[in-house]
Amino acid sequence: MMKRVISLALCLLMLATVLVGCAEKDEDDKGAYINMYLTDQVYDLDPARAYNNESALRLVSLVFDNLFVLDEDGKVKKSLAKDYEIREDENAGEYEMIITLNDTCWTDGTAITANDIYYAWTRVLQSSNDFDAAALLFDIKNARAAKEGDVSIDDVGISAINEKQFQIMFEEPIDYDQFLLNITSYALVPLREDIVGKTVDWAKKPATICSSGPFRLREVSYAEGEERLILERNAYYYRDVLEDEIDKSVTPYRIIVDYTLSDEDIKAKYEKGEIFFVGDIPLSVRGSFKDSAEITDALSTHTYFLNENAVIRYYSARAFEDLASDEDLVDLKKNAWLEEAALVEGTDGEKIFADAKVRKAMSLAIDRDAIANAVVFAKAATALVPYGVYDSNSKKDLFREVGGDIIATSADMSAAKALLSEADVDPSKFMFAISVAAYDDVHMAIAEMVKAAWTELGFNVQIKAVNHIENTDYMKSIDDTPKDIRDDVFTEAFYEGKFEVAAIDYVAKSADAFSVLAPFAKCFTGRAASSAHSVDFEIPTHVTGYNSEDYNNLIEDAHAEKDIEARAEILHDAEKLLIEDMTVIPIIFNQNATLASDDLSKIKFTYYGTMIFTKTKLKDYELYVPKEEEE
């Protein structure tokens, strides 16, 4: 009997030792390291600049939180906003919304306050800044007048009542549900003035960015053979650091993206269970996953912007070879032939893109069906506003389904050539380049197909594949020019209008069609009102140079119309006019296609197709902790 008691005591002692060991191990357990392939490389995580590249938007959504979000079912849900109240006093002519914030912090532990909303929104509305999300805020008192330079930014009807309450004053009673839908745009997330104000490159590396979402930018490397991105849990995200478990609000510890992998490597590692999620399936292996990927509409249209102000030069064999070079974009000032003075005189060519017949001919030459099939996860574009965008303010009726098809998806080369003849344009006389982000393999593949179509039409076309470059901007805060970040020259050139044809993903800034269509109207472009080449104060046109009085009036009417159904009808008329003028050339409607391992659970998505990994779990995650982290 005594031996049994001693034996039992020894067993209990050993079990206690094991349990103590487990407890010590748990204290060191930070959570899952999840290997993924999220997106192509992204060089700037500024939320207000994330809407010309779907890859940037996917990352921005992981590192920044918004007041309201659009959930997977297309419903507006509170996020940073704890609550909101609408107050109307018709006698006083006062219409306001008070938003109360939740308690949460930036990645450096600083509380998120109403002042951060104020700064972010006034930054977008500053007349000297180029942000085409500005029109989303034009229901706010004096917002539009401030953007146009007619009043001070201090006169805009927004203010921080205290640290947790934010006041919005409106010009008149509005559709408040529509306004809430608009501010689900990531372009309007709160930002810190003390962070953003230091340098234009604030959102390019971990040392200078401060974010509000469930993850922070832990590491980014562009060194050859070491290209990678690491996101790490924001330990302050909806968490009391003294009371709560480390993974209370965010389950994964790190998300790791290895950019050294080839397309075949990504495919092989996913199939072997070494990569657990693929958010952007490489083009060359898409066919293998056509039937197994999770596919949704991306609220994005791959679109070609034609610069109506660009003088399209007469063909010369020597100059034609130089068109493909991106050296003139490394220093934008070298691109002299696209400077404003050269657009008027001194350039040997003509502004043929200013002729709608030429633009329509170029659109007719494109076989959108063939391009969509080549991209795999796409639909041939039948207009500009993509699938997923609402017709009113819910997904019950979609704008594209109500509006129908406006553009034929097959090519009509005969009709295209006839239109050029009507315009008295001999395409063989002209040469131009399609500017494309070289780091996007899908965009490059599309450009090759469009180039072939336009070459068949008779034009002399090159592809200007624009690469990122090592940073050249001096940073005053550190008195140096940091070399560990990259400049996205393609995006910089696009915003400055330094292109002949530019290929971009035109992403809806909200699920409202107005957000897609309004920026083409002169007073709704969001571009800086001060001319860069003159002391005169003026409202600029769209970056393409498009300026139609009829179109401007339609958008004015849509903005003024408070009946949601009547407003939708006006927006459909606006889209038809935009396509009739072929202001830009829609190519395909993008789709999100993702792959997720069976070992990965609790992945969610927003209606915009961005990923939510806040509560994502990886089975047996302990097996995947990097060796250097174990030591």
Task: Describe what this molecule looks like in 3D.
The protein is of the alpha+beta class and 631 residues long. The protein has three domains: 30-43 and 198-280 and 598-630, D-Maltodextrin-Binding Protein, domain 2, CATH 3.40.190; 66-103 and 111-191, Dipeptide-binding Protein, Domain 1 (Dipeptide-binding Protein, domain 1, Alpha-Beta Complex), CATH 3.90.76; 298-509 and 583-590, Dipeptide-binding Protein, domain 3, CATH 3.10.105. It has 20 helices and 25 strands. Strands 1, 8, 9, 10, 11, 12, 15, 16, 17, 20 and 21 form an eleven-stranded mixed beta sheet that branches. Strands 4-5-7-6 form a four-stranded antiparallel beta sheet, covered by helices on one side. The chain has a two-stranded antiparallel sheet with strand order 2-3. Strand 4 and strand 5 form a beta hairpin. Helix 18 packs antiparallel against helix 19 (564-581). The model is unreliable at 1-25 and 333-346 (pLDDT under 50).
What is the CA-atom radius of gyration, in angstroms?
Answer: 26 Å
* Share of β-strand residues: 15-25%
Question: Average pLDDT, to the nearest integer?
Answer: 90
User: Helix/strand-derived class?
Assistant: alpha+beta
Give the CA-based shape.
globular
CATH topology of the largest domain: Dipeptide-binding Protein, domain 3
